[in-house]
Amino acid sequence: MLRKFTALFSKIFRNGDSKNNLSEKAILQFETKLNYHFNDKELINQALKHRSYLSVTNESRLISNERLELLGDSVLGMVVTEYLFKKYLSKEEGELTAMKSLLVSRKILARVSREIGIGKFILLNDAEEKSGGRDRASITADAFEAIIGAMYLDGGLDVVVKFIHQKLLKFCDKILHEEHYRNFKSILLEYSQSKNLGLPQYHVRDEEGPDHEKLFTIEVIINNEVLGIGKGNSKKGAEQISAKNALKKLNVI
Fold first, then answer.
1. pTM for this one?
2. Do 139 and 233 fall into the same domain?
């Protein structure tokens, strides 16, 4: 019996001792941060293996976290959509779409990833790490989705729902009211597409001041109607404000 237990234990952790994967100690630390212990430890390694690390291991791209990221993105979207559907009974489809877009955006997922401390554990090659990959939003957000995919495969939907509620949806109201994280142009685009209104068009209505202190006035037009006007010291900033005003006029925010 002892021999069987030892063999099983060795099988579970043997890849953690490999240069290709996380150490056993790192896996245990990571599981503690997630408050979840995997039955299949290989799923942890794959969820945290950025494609840059394949240049170190000479493994197939199928071994990176991209496939798990795809799965996790779908599971995350479903869980968030169901939550919003049940919580906001008076919201229409377009409004729910805009809210979901914000909650699963790269900025929000990267922030959640940082709070958990995922970046410390991501497997990167030296070049990616030296360029700040552990803190890069695209990498940490993708890793978060890959982890969700791994947890779904390892423990099932109930486990994932609990995790997403604890790490993301618990702060839903706060996130939805934090304008700093809102990409109003993206939200307006998704809303207009969901309603078959066509693509928003942004036009400069006016430019004021000298070149070093320009003030731009930009309008956003959807379906031949001016829905929002915004002013800012840059075109991008003015476009965001005009999109925000359009969303207000449409009663989306």
1. 0.72
2. no
